[in-house]
Amino acid sequence: MECARYLEPPAETVTDDSPGLPTEFVERLRAIFGNEADAVLATFGSDRRPGVWANPLRTQQPIGTLLAGLGVVSEACPWLTTAATIAPEAKPLVTNSAEVAAGALYVQNLSSMLAPWVLAPQPGESVLDLAAAPGGKTLHLAARMLCEGELAAVEPVRPRRFKLSANLERCGADGFVRVYPHDGREVGRKTPARFDAVLLDAPCSSEARFDPRNPATFAYWGPRKLAESARKQKSLLRSALDATKPGGRVLYCTCSFAPEENELVVAHTLRRMGAAIELTPLELPVATARPGLHNWRGKSLPSDLTRTLRVLPDRQLAGFYLALFAKR
C-alpha cells in the first residue's frame, strides 16, 4: 500500500520487547490482543514462510511437483490444494524462476489467499475487485470463476494499474478481466446494484507489514495516517455496497491491526446503511483466526462485529482482517 508523505518526524521507537517498532504501536497491539500480544509481537522482524500458488490458468501440475522441480521443499496448504509455503531462503529461487515468469507460479502470502477463498466467486457471476493492484487476488478470483462471467478490476493509480495489467497478462487472465482506471469511491454511484460479489482489499496503513529492520515500513505511521486511511476506507466500502445487487455480498479486508481501519469502519457502515446490509458470520480454516473486537478504548461496538475475523500473524500467515457483508 502507498504511504502518504507527511512532513512529520518518524514515530518514537522502543528497544525492549520489540526492537525498533513505534512505542505507541506496541502499546496499541497490547491493548488489541491482550495476553496474545507477546506472540504477535514476536513475529515482527522474523521472516515468515512465503506462500506460493500454482495458477490453474497456466498449469495443471500440482504445486508440490512444480516446486520440487525447482529443488524447493514445500509444505502444502491444508485448506487450498493449489498453494504451499516454502522456506524464506528459497524465495529468491522461486521468484526468479521461469515458472514465475510464465505465470505458472505466483508468490503471495497465505493470508491474501484467504480473501478470494471467503468471497468464493462462482462461474457466471458478475464480480468486482475494487482496489485490485497488484493483481494477486484478482487472479485468484478469475481462476475460481473459470474465466466465466464478468470480472472488473479497478485501480486509479497509473503505475499500479500498469503492474496490475502486466500481472494479468503474464498469468493468463487479461482476456477475461477488464481493468478500469476509476476512483473506487465513485464506482457505486456509476454502477449501482451491478455486481453479485465485490472484493475490497482496502488501502490501509499496512501495519501487518511493519518490519523493525526497515524503518521505512512505518516511517509515516501515526494517528494522522490512521484517520486518513479510515476516511477513504469508509467511502470505498459504501461504494462497494452501492455497486452490489440485492442478495449480493461484499468482502472488506485490510492488512492492518488498527480498529480504526477495521471494526470502526465496519461499525460506521452498519450505522449508515442500517437494515440494507448485515454481517455474515465467518469461519476460517486457520488456527489463528479470532473474532473482531466488540469494544475499543472504552467504547462499545455492535455485537455483530464478532462475526468479523482477525487473523493473527504466525510463521506462515500475515496479520489480516476480514468482514463479509450481505446486501438485503
UniProtKB/TrEMBL annotation:
Instruction: Look up the record and give one Gene Ontology term from the biological process aspect.
Output: RNA methylation
Gene designation:
rsmF
Q: Which residues form the SAM-dependent MTase RsmB/NOP-type domain?
A: 40-328
Keywords attached to this entry? Cytoplasm, Methyltransferase, RNA-binding, S-adenosyl-L-methionine, Transferase
The record's GO molecular-function terms, alphabetically, read: RNA binding; RNA methyltransferase activity
Q: Mind telling me what this protein is named?
A: Ribosomal RNA small subunit methyltransferase F
User: What is annotated as the active site?
Assistant: 255
Binding of S-adenosyl-L-methionine: at which residues? 131-137, 155, 183, 201
- CDD domains (alphabetical): AdoMet_MTases (cd02440)
Give the protein family: Belongs to the class I-like SAM-binding methyltransferase superfamily. RsmB/NOP family.
- A Pfam family cross-referenced in the UniProt record is Methyltr_RsmB-F
**EC number assigned by the record:** 2.1.1.178
